[in-house]
Specification:
By secondary structure, this protein is an alpha/beta fold. It has two domains: 159 residues, Medium-chain alcohol dehydrogenases, catalytic domain (Quinone Oxidoreductase, Chain A, domain 1, Alpha-Beta Complex), CATH 3.90.180.10; 130 residues, NAD(P)-binding Rossmann-like Domain (Rossmann fold, 3-Layer(aba) Sandwich), CATH 3.40.50. Helices cover 26% and strands 25% of the residues. It contains ten helices and 15 strands. Strands 3, 4, 5, 6, 7, 14 and 15 form a seven-stranded mixed beta sheet that branches. Strands 10-9-8-11-12-13 form a six-stranded parallel beta sheet. The chain has a two-stranded antiparallel sheet with strand order 1-2. α4 packs across α5 and α4 packs across α9. GO terms for molecular function: NADPH binding; oxidoreductase activity, acting on NAD(P)H. InterPro entries: ADH-like_N, ER, GroES-like_sf, NAD(P)-bd_dom_sf.
Length: 322
């Protein structure tokens, strides 16, 4: 099989596409033939080991798994003799944010809490764009007590998380203002009520206040955004912030301020997958996809994502004929 391979933490220049034996499942594992996966900021963290805290989960001093990749859709091709929940031929999807080895044509796993059966009727390539960003977006929103017609600001409306958050918020009848660097029409098409083009205007001058600010790219700070929050409003970021300030602010602002930081630790992947299955089957979610590439192009894709240029999701389709 072909697989992305590296032996140490590196940037995109340090990975190679390597021919490896197809792995065989242990008695408590399944073998999965990957149909599609993505290249995301989470994948960059697994590849580079940055921020350093990633290495506590991915491996120290080098990655435990030389094959990166965190999310996937695929088909079960072999089942260990102790596994009773999955059968050969079933479609599955999932994610493990410290790496599952899905940037390969096959991988084996027994981490069943990180995957779920993919319902019939859902395109596995489209589904691959509804895992990482959507899971994190759901874990932004479920930390908030937003009511219909409340107002939310999404910073990073063209990212995987931000583009998902806009649609999920609109499904809850929230008034959404989104900030993007260009691509205004594409963000508007996601359902945003207002789109601020950050290339032309400063969102701090928007003249609005919000019940929640979701910084889906981690480019701003609570101290900067605080004037835009209503009293009792909340700021959430996808990043730790300078000197990990968002963790400390999440502990102190609920006590010391009438505006607070919430640090949205992602939990309950199966709940996120179930939610996305429901929305996809009802045609109520349309992921923003930048491009669909082959595995042979993945080095360039890592470089592209690392530059912060992607619009939505970069998807790797293993078999161009599918």
């Amino acid at each position: 099989m072909k697989a992305v391979y590296r032996t140490s933490y590196t940037d995109s220049s340090g990975i190679v596409l390597k021919e490896l034996p197809i792995p065989e499942p242990q008695s408590d594992e399944i073998q999965i033939k990957v149909i599609a996966t993505s290249v995301s900021r989470t994948d960059l963290g697994v590849l580079t080991g940055w921020p350093w805290i990633m290495r506590l989960f991915v491996g120290w001093p080098k990655p435990r798994n030389p094959i990166p990749g965190t999310d996937f859709t695929g088909k079960v091709t072999k089942v260990g003799n102790l596994v009773s929940d999955f059968d050969e031929g079933e479609m599955v999807w999932g994610m493990k944010d410290n790496g599952i080895g899905s940037h390969a044509e096959y991988f084996c796993t027994g981490a069943f809490k990180h995957l779920q059966k993919l319902p019939q009727g859902i395109d596995p390539v489209i589904a691959a764009a509804c895992i990482e960003g959507a899971h994190y977006a759901i874990n932004f929103i479920n930390k908030l007590d937003l009511q219909p017609e409340d107002r939310a600001l999404v910073i990073g409306g063209t990212g995987g998380i931000g583009s998902a958050a806009i649609q999920l918020l609109k499904a809850k009848r929230i008034h959404v203002t989104a900030v993007s660097l260009g691509q205004v029409d594409r963000v508007k098409a996601l359902g945003a009520d207002r789109v601020i083009n950050g290339l032309e205007e400063n969102f701090l001058d928007c003249g609005e206040q919000f019940h929640a600010i979701l910084d889906a790219v981690g480019k701003s700070r609570f101290t900067i955004c605080k004037p835009l929050l209503y009293p009792k409003g909340s700021y959430l970021s996808s990043e730790l912030g300078p000197n990990w300030e968002n963790i400390f602010l999440a502990l102190t602002t609920p006590i010391l301020s009438n505006k607070k930081v919430i640090f949205p630790l992602p939990q309950d992947l199966k709940g996120s997958l179930s939610k996305m299955s429901e929305l996809l089957l009802k045609k109520q979610f349309n992921p923003l996809i930048d491009r669909v590439i082959s595995l042979a192009e993945i080095q360039e894709a890592y470089s592209y994502v690392s530059q912060g240029k992607k619009i939505g999701n970069v998807i790797v389709k293993m078999d161009p004929e599918i």
